[in-house]
Amino acid sequence: MENLFERTTIVNAAPVGALATSGGTAINTIQHYYTGFAPEMLHRPIETVLEQFRKGNKDVAKGQLKILRDMGGQDPKVLPALDVVSIFLNLLDVDETAKVRQQLTTFLAQQPVTETPSLLTDLCTSALLRVACREVDAEAARVVWNSLKSPGPHTKETFLALIATVDELEDVRSRGLLLTAGELRGAVEGAIRLGNYEIAGAAAKGLLEVDEGTTTRFLALSAKAGLAESEFKNKHFWSITASLHDDLMLMAKETSELLLLEPLPDSRLPQLAAKLFVYLRGGSEDLAEACRKKIDLIQAVHPECASLLRFQHQKDCSGFSEFGQKIVKAETDEAFRNQYINNLICESSLSMDDAIFLKHHAAPEVLKNWLGGGGRCIEKDELAKDLITLHLLIRSLDPIKDITGRRELRSHCQEFFTRHGQDLARLNADPILEIAGQLNALDLPLEAARFLEPLLPNGDYWPSPIFRCYLDSLVRAEKNATLAAVLVKIPDRFWNRWLWQLKARLEFFLANYAEAESSLQKGAAFGITPQLAVGLIDVMKKLGNESGIPGVLSQVPDTALALGDQYSQRLIVEMFKNGLEDRATSFVLECFIAGPDLSAVAITDIFNTLFYRDEPLRLGVFSGEAVVKGVRYSDGKSILTKLILAPEQARGQYFVSSSSPLGERLLKVTVGETFKEGIVSYKLEESLPAIVAAYQISLHIRDAMNEGTDCFHMFHAPENPHDLLQQLLEISSTNRNQRREILEHESLPLMFKGHMLRKGNPVDAALSVLSDSEAKRHPMPDYASEEDYQAVVIDVYGVIYLAITGLTTG
Questions:
Q1: What is the C-alpha separation between 506 and 118, in angstroms, rounded?
Q2: Across the beta sheet with 680-688, what order do the strands follow?
Q3: Distance between CA atoms of residues 177 and 168, nearest Å
Q4: What number of H helices and E strands is found in the chain?
Q5: What is the pLDDT of residues 206-256, one digit of tens each?
Q6: Cβ–Cβ < 8 Å for 152, 47
Q7: pLDDT, tens digit, for every residue of 534-588?
């Protein structure tokens, strides 16, 4: 049988899509070439039209159908078949459908009864079922189905897709290999219609074995989506298991691939992509990128998703609700934010939206005053009202200053758990994550973990934001046994640098130093960081493998170091200690030149730490070309310490340009020599290594910038050694007075005193407090007076006490 569409393309030397819209000469040529033809000749081109339709190429299918109509003219033998195709393509309006239904009935009544219906009879019967479902209901269509003695494949597909019950679909599935591709396709569609995704998935699997087309891939994807949705129903994305997370990520990848195809495999695909994107919270970059490229299609079916995409990509919040736009505007518009907050705090009662705005943008002090003045949120849902009230209270506290407030907050949390403990699992994960993170910052990790636990899956964890926060809570609360039990439930494929560091920290605590080193090495495979490198160095020292420290330091690039980071500072100290002083010196000087005021505190901390060593400090040589030297000179009024730099680097009051008249003279004269430059007389007091000059300048900067919160203080040593000794005695006398006040304080608990005097060393603290004659004696518990204990668990203070008193020897 000839392929009509291939032949028309040859005749007109133009693609089918062009023929469908060219009109005029092309159509006339086709009509002239095919003036009348038998209906049997339509079989193959109709199958081609339907195949294009199934693939989602609807425009191509419509163009091909137009060609067939133009060729067929008004032939009454041909029109029913073409009308059938129109029904499949959903091209007819209500009036036309009613007319076609009558034509189909008449046409079928005229067809002879055969064991195997012809293609046109099969298509007409299938179309009649579709019309019956559309016009009346499935029962009317079932009447038509029941009247058929030998339905064809298209009719069977339509029945399964639009009419069949779950039991009938189950019966079809049990036949397995005996099903045609059309029946499998119909079974998938029918199962999706009925929400039975197990049948849909099984049928889709069989369909993929005989047809791997994009339409089949979409149907299989829809079945997977339905199964996944039944698993995570009413669960936040962060609360699902690792296995389901993997399935969704694979679905997102396949969805993104299908969404980018031209034309779309199915008109339902944008809706599926949008829903998946929203549920995954943008977690799949492939899907996000595909949705951005098809933003118009997404907008048509899911405006909320389109708004999120535009905001993520372009910071365009025009699609948000009025409240959402206010939240976003307040992020950047300070005047609007302050005015809106001022308006809100004038009210004693706020709606939920306004309370959320205040929680997002008001300063802690503002929130504290508003709550203290009787401010409250009005909301019918008691759970929601109590949650936002608690959140406002949390946001009103300062993590460092509000010690009393933290104690009250713990009580408020317990009240919340008492009232709503059974409802925690249905809370939205977003505000809970925010609350838990702030509770951790306020040193209330147990309360944070209590909020998070109901939202976690029962094992099979993946590092979602709430799970990471939960692990952080366990670490802060020192719940090491729970932490160990949780870590083993994370599949290997999700382990990353952060998790390996947690594992190493746990092993280090248990004194399993070899295991800790192994964990850190596995974490380093994801890229070494200053924090991880510090961990490796500490473990190596415990293992007595200090010779490996330079190797660790060499793995950390300078680009990963930041002078304001405590771990980077520690690494720089280790560089000075382990023969990498040139690199350390160069890095410190580069940071100092880039920002003296910003780096002064870090530089003084680094060198003050190094000065506590017994070994002499080795200074390195700067590897760059910008630094010439450091100098200390007088100008007749004061003594100045500065760095002499290359002209392009010498910017600011702490530097002198090497090409300036003063810089040139300072480089030429010897120490102690006086010279005159302009009207000022100068004297070079000392020539310094550049790094020493940077340290001395940093000392002055830090001392000058101290607004009272920095424990640092710089004092100048007198030239007379006797005066220096007297000055040191006065400083130590002040410390002794403070120590005596602490030891003699009656209300301070024993452990508090030890912590204040020897922070970070409980054994030394216990020895210091318990053996000092000036310390106020605290009563010890008399265990034997209450009960005859078989064993008593004591802390380090109890151990030291027993050792000092000799009670351990009987």
A1: 74
A2: 655-657, 639-645, 627-634, 680-688, 674-677
A3: 17
A4: 43, 7
A5: 899 888 888 899 999 999 999 998 888 888 999 999 999 999 999 999 999
A6: no
A7: 999 999 999 999 999 999 999 999 999 998 899 999 999 999 999 999 999 999 9
